[in-house]
From TrEMBL:
<dbReference type="InterPro" id="IPR023286">
    <property type="entry name" value="ABATE_dom_sf"/>
</dbReference>
<protein>
    <submittedName>
        <fullName>ABATE domain-containing protein</fullName>
    </submittedName>
</protein>
<dbReference type="Pfam" id="PF07336">
    <property type="entry name" value="ABATE"/>
</dbReference>
<dbReference type="InterPro" id="IPR010852">
    <property type="entry name" value="ABATE"/>
</dbReference>
<dbReference type="Pfam" id="PF11706">
    <property type="entry name" value="zf-CGNR"/>
</dbReference>
<feature type="domain" description="Zinc finger CGNR">
    <location>
        <begin position="135"/>
        <end position="177"/>
    </location>
</feature>
<dbReference type="InterPro" id="IPR021005">
    <property type="entry name" value="Znf_CGNR"/>
</dbReference>
């Protein structure tokens, strides 16, 4: 299965590697190779990095901490101190090394620690900043993806109009046709 990266935040893209959290859970980071594919799609690093089972467990732990922190933000409830500590510890990690190549392009070097630290920093920036109030959960009943609503009126309801939004609009159309 392909990963989706359209949430508006890299940390929420990581959170989206679990589908259907409330029903038939779909784990998209089942193997270290899955994490390698996810990271390749983020554009954080220019080259694939080796990932072990322990590395995968660390990434999944980050993902779940970000999910719980984002849900607390959405619900207006206190965040778990352990989640905040875990996020802050990872965010304090080493940065991806940027350099300007001879051809004028940007090169991004680092390993898994740097990639996870960058993802954690995007979560800190989002959840601790002015856009925290724009974090929403998809309104589709079978979708649990979180996203940043950057629409002008803050009225976006679906994580993606091409999937969940389209299915909802088709269902509404069919219901009107039956009536």
């Amino acid at each position: 299965m392909d990963f989706k990266y359209g949430t508006g935040n890299l940390a929420l893209d990581l959170v989206g590697t679990v589908g259907h959290r409330r029903s038939d859970v779909l784990e998209l980071l089942a193997t270290p190779a899955d994490l390698v594919r996810f990271l390749a799609g983020t554009g954080l690093l220019d080259r694939p990095v080796p990932v072990s089972e322990a590395d995968l467990a660390e990434a999944v732990s980050l993902r779940e901490a970000v999910y719980r922190l984002a849900r607390a933000t959405i619900e207006g409830t206190p965040a778990r101190p352990a989640d905040r500590r875990a996020l802050n510890e990872l965010a304090a990690g080493p940065a991806v090394r940027l350099r300007l190549a001879e051809d004028g392009s940007t090169r991004r070097d680092g390993g898994l620690a740097e990639a996870l630290a960058e993802i954690a920093r995007t979560a800190v920036t989002l959840l601790g900043g002015p856009e925290a109030a724009s974090v929403k959960e998809c309104a589709a009943p079978d979708c649990t993806r979180l996203y940043v609503d950057r629409s002008r009126k803050q009225a976006r309801r679906w994580c993606d109009m091409r999937s969940c939004g389209n299915r909802a609009k088709v269902a509404e159309f069919r219901a009107r046709q039956k009536a």
